[in-house]
Give the backbone structure.
Amino acid sequence: MFSLLQIAIRNVMRNKRRTAITLAALLVGVSVMVSIRGALNGLQRSLVQNVVSGQTGAIQVHRAGFLKNVLSSPLSLDMPQDADFEKKLLSVPHVKAVSPRILFAGMINVADQTIFLGVQAIDPIREFQVVPLRQATMGDKGLMESGKVLDAMVVTEQLQGALQGSKVPKDAPAAILAPDKDGALSGENVTLTGVMKLNMPGEKKVGMVHIGVAQRLLKMEGRATEYIVAVDEIENIPQVAAELRKALGKEYEVSTWEDIATFVKQAMQRQSMILSLVAGVFMILMLLGVANTMLMSVLDRTREIGTMMAVGVRRSKILGLFLMEAATIGAMGGIVGGAVGSVIVLALNARGISVTFPGSNVPFTIHPYVSASYLISIVALAGMGALLFAIYPAWRASRLRPVEALAGG
Amino acid sequence: MFRTTLLTLAMTVLLPTVAFADPTAEELLKKYDSVMGPENFSATILMTAHRDDGTTRAYKMSMLKKGDDKFRATFAEPAAVRGQEMLRQGDNLWVYMPNLKRAVRLANRDSFQGGDFNNADVLRVNYQADYSAKVIADSGRADAWLIELHAKTKEAAYDMIKLWMRKSDSQPVKGEYYTASGKMLRAAEFSDFKPFSGLVRPGKISMKNMLATQRYSTMTWDAMDSKVNPPSGKFVLDDLGR
């Protein structure tokens, strides 16, 4: 068995040009597959991070039924916003921070123009503890000044655009109108203090106010419609969600970022599927190349095979020899390709690739990476695939008739 | 003799139908406007909004109308909206918020105080100006005519309305309100027909929300006087809050 491997390696090394061409095919194929996977890994991790630390937070807590009724009257499904409730949330292990929000629909009036908008009422200081990336999307001036809550609103660029283009001066007087928790129309004066970038696709006309302003407007003092829970590591999210469910009981619903940003999850699954398809096609093309060179090799070496048979080498050994040669090339190509791919991925990881999603204006950097298990599996796949695609040429070789083979086929 | 009797009989049966021909769509629309939004009036109205969770909210307001397109509503109850006023002038609609001390423009199709009427339902009753109408032959009920209204202007409250008016006195009895795509948003029933200082009209409208079917609102007229002539000065922005 060992001598067979030695002969196989010697044979592979003997015809340098053919081996080089096959190796090149494998190298390109495997390194491209590794690079694409790496880029996608990086993209998907950034996507998750962008969602978790820039939009939804890791976990959201609502009153039961809130998400189902989010379009009708979510203000009646509210919860306390106080230290007792927060203590309950913070007592769950791995919970890093919590922050209350109120989401509501209303109108904004500037000059003689009134338009609809979605409002997110937040506690700025704690909001940035649960969704730190958000800080980057906010303007230079915000909802608080030296610890004091401002009657202020920060609007998305799209909302500012809808409000008479760019003619709205900074610090423009405005009013928010919204039905309060009883449905009565209520209004509060605010100043437009800043412009923020939209950080995810979705509702574009959005304004952000301090939760205190919203509580006054909606007559919801000491209440919130949701709590965002930050978790120390992304991997701990499911466990923390389960424990929160246990701690809060049936009255509340606990959702992870995957439940809320379902489109992100779906997009990721779609991307992975497409990648598998592309990788599969690459692999087959590559392996067809291997099969082709092996077949050429068999035809080239007919006389040699005849000689081997004439001196008593068994057909099974011939079969084994050619399979071994293919596996050797496959393994070599896989390893070298994997190594080249890893170098590319590492280089891109160090450099980072800047990407902006359609519908969002916040560019973010992706850092490609691949896991060791993926590398091992791709090298194994290249070797096994080469072996599989060499079965036919090797079988052809083992079926040759010694006399004819000696005569040169 | 026999023939004469037959003729007389036929005449007595046929004559009423000849004398009282079916009203045209325009006539019905005019009748609707004359009872629901007479040229000038003052009224006190109670709106009760029944919400998804089974609770109710009551709003008490007084309303003034002058000419075709001037409305002013002033809220007295509940405390949260006391002092709020709504003013309509042509296609413009404002709400005056006492705490803001100024008026803010509103959209016609926005919900009126979070209930199931929209602003135009209450403050823009001029169907002749806003809609073109045609009579639908099969009204689905023997006691009422059905007219179909299509919006002539985008400021109208709805894209399409089906309105049933009873044959006995042409009073509105039922309405269905649709989007341009044909989705039913709301359905109204008119009841409690009685005279208000001489004008017979529905004293109550019940508006059902067809999107959130647990919700409906009723509007009850406590008093209405269509013989008043409020001064024009009541219908300007500067007068709000005074």
